[in-house]
Write a structure and sequence with these properties.
There is one protein chain. The chain is mostly beta strands and about 100 residues long. It has one domain. Helices cover about 0% and strands about 55% of the residues. The chain has no helices and 8 strands. Strands 2, 3, 4, 5 and 8 form a 5-stranded antiparallel sheet that branches. A hairpin with a 2-residue loop joins β2 and β3. The radius of gyration is 13 Å and the shape is elongated. The two termini are about 20 Å apart.
Length: about 100
């Protein structure tokens, strides 16, 4: 799941070697998707601001497994979509 105060983000995900490519997909926030994963799979989720606004925005990425939050990461900063800032990322292994 990706949310925050930004209106849009460049989102890149990976589940056990399958991914949506580099640099990812432009998504309107809030955004979420469901993928099948099993214990031991490596998963990652990265999102960066793509909303041109004046001031600060936040980007939060969260990974859930079996309806349980595994990890969340939030970063805030000056909106700078030309540098994909701010951005948040998570890399983990499913327990």
């Amino acid at each position: 799941m990706v949310d925050g105060t930004s209106c849009a983000a460049l989102v890149r995900w990976s589940v056990d070697g399958q991914n949506n490519g580099n640099p990812g997909d432009l998504e309107t926030l809030p955004w979420s998707m469901t993928r099948t994963a099993t214990s031991g799979d490596s998963v990652s989720l990265k999102a960066c601001n793509e909303c041109t606004v004046t001031g600060e925005v936040s980007i939060r990425v969260s990974i859930y497994w079996r309806d349980t939050l595994l990890r969340t990461s939030t970063h805030s900063g000056h909106s700078d979509p030309s540098r994909c800032k701010p951005q948040s990322a998570i890399d983990l292994e499913i327990p």
